[in-house]
Design goal:
CATH superfamily of the domain at 122-247 in chain B: Periplasmic binding protein-like II
Number of domains of chain A: 2
Order of helices and strands of chain B: HEHEHEHEEHEHEHEEHEHH
Strand content of chain A: under 5%
Structural class of chain A: mainly alpha
Shape of chain B: elongated
Order of helices and strands of chain A: HHEEHHHHHHHHHH
Strand content of chain B: 15-25%
Mean pLDDT of chain A: 90
Largest sheet of chain A: 2 strands, antiparallel
Mean pLDDT of chain B: 84
Low-confidence stretches of chain A: none
Number of strands of chain A: 2
Shape of chain A: globular
Largest sheet of chain B: 10 strands, mixed
CATH architecture of the domain at 122-247 in chain B: 3-Layer(aba) Sandwich
Low-confidence stretches of chain B: 14-39
Distance between the termini of chain A: 51 Å
Largest interface: A-B, 39 and 33 residues
Distance between the termini of chain B: 76 Å
CATH topology of the largest domain in chain A: MetI-like fold
CATH architecture of the largest domain in chain A: Orthogonal Bundle
Oligomer: heterodimer
Helix content of chain B: 25-40%
Number of helices of chain B: 10
Radius of gyration of chain A: 24 Å
Strand order of the largest sheet of chain A: 1-2
CATH class of the domain at 122-247 in chain B: Alpha Beta
CATH superfamily of the largest domain in chain A: MetI-like
Number of strands of chain B: 10
Structural class of chain B: alpha/beta
């Protein structure tokens, strides 16, 4: 009897260590894949960095592959502006949603609203693009500014704002809910109203998590491709204001870094292809910076919490 | 017990993944022997590389040819017209595809290439249905697309800004339009809205008031209006008779005279059946 028990124990330990190895293997494979993709992109982009030069690539505003002009600055500006627009339009909505779900909504409302917001995240981006193309672009075209054809940064920002809403709302909601109940109770016991508690205690306590939510939304916005191609106009030009009102810059057409790759890679050979891979490297670095800052924010939040 | 089963399952999945990764690499080594049969039945492999405009019609032609000659395998790859000429000139592809005239510089680099024009394709100027202008000169079109003409009033319409829609850099249609309409000096304005396919151009023009674009004949439908050039309407008849000015050849390029297999395929394209496919795909027959 004792023999079988110890045999079973040995078998269990063996199973444990084997499972450990298998799981370690899966983790290593994932890391290797990321590394390989990074290295491959970098290797393909090398001729561009060598022949065009990093400075000219990053600061040049002209992109004419036919004449060997490869400047990414207009596209970097396009990506940054459209992301900024999306944050300005989407952030109040997303944070409002998060606060409502975490602090205000009764359980049954939460049970309806939360899955609906999560459903937004599951809609394929080409559907958002289609919606933007047939609904938002004609709407934006109604703004009476010379040269405005509807396709441009504003339409793209509106589409993106909806696309990043679920990311920001759900992460921010988790951050709010992880604030210990004692904080709220303490505040209420001191005579603060619910609004004061929210503004002075809960939100400040969840601040870093909410910031991380915003940064994750930024990363999502920078990487979006197909929906952008469909509504932004794809012109390689520095976005500029059409009238004295600086906000009309958002009616300008632009191209995003992601769109640049997707639109041209089918035809590209030689240096042109290398320049598109270099576009990928720039995007990779931008998103890595954004994600690293999100992690740093989350980590600092946990240390304080 | 159940842990052992799940462990086995896990291992099995990993093995399957590993096997899947190894697969394609081994397979690709087997292909690639070209040999014309000594019997009356042709056999072997033919590679076509180049223009993405010709690619779809070449694929249909290849399929029809393969059903007549089951021992022949035809590979059709994209890459663009320039890639097509270069691959044929260097002999890395049996046949190159170019949806434009071969440039003098290309004949200089590869003096022994032979050009076979298998079809023609007209490029029409299209506008959204609300546009009142219905005829433009080549000079006016050049001005509109380069950005020197910005209002429909400058070409006889109301004072409404013109919205220019174009294809992306590298597109064969854009290349042919630049060559035949824009010429050496004028470039398409950087402010033009770019749409990455013929279909997207059509949809965008149809939905954007006071817009203008250029489009291959094969894609035009009732959702947009066509604009005549110097009084000549963009119809297949006018293109065939040579009065419509913006017609490009769809060319196949071989290094020297084609070998038996390539000759047979090109002859098939020139046959009544082959040209019927060309017309059915929306292009103009060369006969």
């Amino acid at each position: 009897m004792t023999g079988t028990v110890s045999a079973r124990g040995r078998m269990k330990r063996l199973t444990d260590s084997a499972m450990g190895l298998v799981l370690l293997g899966s983790a290593l494979v994932s890391v290797t894949i990321v590394l390989l993709i990074g290295l491959f992109t970098l290797k393909e982009a090398l001729p561009a960095f060598r022949d065009i030069g990093l400075v000219r690539l990053l600061t040049g505003t002209e992109w004419r592959p036919g004449q060997d002009l490869y400047g990414l600055f207009a596209m970097i500006a396009g990506s940054v502006l459209v992301t900024l627009g999306a944050i300005v339009l989407g952030l109040p909505l997303a944070l409002g949603c998060a606060v409502f779900l975490a602090e205000v909504a009764p359980a049954w409302v939460r049970a309806v609203v939360k899955p609906s917001i999560e459903l937004l995240a599951g809609i394929p981006s080409v559907v958002f693009g289609l919606f933007g193309m047939v609904v938002l672009v004609p709407m934006v075209r109604g703004i009476d500014v010379p040269g405005n054809a509807g396709f441009g940064l504003l339409s793209a920002s509106m589409v993106l704002a909806v696309m990043i809403l679920p990311t920001i709302a759900s992460v921010a909601e988790v951050a709010l809910r992880s604030v210990p109940e004692e904080y709220r109770q303490g505040s209420l016991a001191l005579g603060a109203t619910r609004w004061e508690t929210l503004r002075r205690v809960t939100v400040p306590a969840a601040r870093s998590g909410m910031l991380a939510a915003v940064v994750l939304g930024l990363g999502r916005a920078l990487g979006e491709t197909i929906a952008m191609i469909m509504v932004i106009g794809n012109a390689v030009m520095m976005p500029e204001a059409a009238t004295s009102n600086p906000l009309t810059i958002f009616l300008s057409r632009a191209r995003t870094l992601t769109g640049n790759i997707a639109v041209e890679i089918n035809y590209a050979t030689g240096l042109h292809a290398a320049a598109l891979f270099a576009t990928g490297v720039v995007l990779f670095v931008l998103i890595m910076i954004v994600n690293a800052s999100a992690r740093a924010l989350l980590a600092s939040g946990m240390r304080r919490g | 017990m159940s842990t052992r089963i799940s462990m086995l399952l896990f291992g099995g999945i990993l093995l399957a993944i590993a096997a899947g990764c190894g697969g394609p690499g081994e397979g690709s080594g087997a292909a690639g022997s070209t040999s014309s049969g000594t019997t009356e039945n042709l056999s072997g492999e033919l590679t076509l590389v180049g223009s993405t405009t010709i690619q779809p019609v070449a694929e249909v032609l290849a399929e029809a040819y393969e059903s007549l000659h089951p021992d022949v395998m035809i590979n059709v790859q994209g890459g663009g017209s320039s890639v097509g000429v270069t691959s044929a000139g260097q002999g890395t592809a049996d046949i190159g595809m170019a949806s434009r005239d071969i440039k003098a510089s290309e004949f200089e680099e590869f003096p022994d290439i032979v050009v076979h024009t298998i079809a023609r394709d007209g490029i029409a100027i299209i506008a959204s249905p609300d546009v009142t202008v219905s005829d433009l000169s080549l000079d006016q079109i050049r001005g509109i697309f380069s950005g020197t003409i910005v209002s429909w009033r400058q070409v006889g319409g109301p004072d409404i800004p013109i919205v220019v829609i174009s294809r992306e850099e590298g597109s064969g249609t854009r290349g042919a339009f630049e060559e035949m309409v824009m010429g050496e000096d004028a470039v398409i304005s950087a402010a033009a809205i770019l749409q990455p396919s013929n279909g997207a151009v059509l949809t965008t023009v149809a939905g954007t008031p006071s817009s203008i674009a250029y489009l291959s004949f094969g894609y035009i439908n009732d959702s947009v209006k066509t604009i005549s050039i110097g009084g000549v309407a963009p119809t297949p008849e006018n293109a065939a008779s040579g009065t419509y000015p913006v017609v490009r050849p769809l060319n196949l390029v071989t290094k020297g005279e084609p070998d038996e297999l390539a000759r047979s395929f090109i002859d098939f394209i020139y046959s009544a059946d082959g040209q019927a496919i060309v017309v059915q795909e929306g292009y103009l027959s060369v006969n």
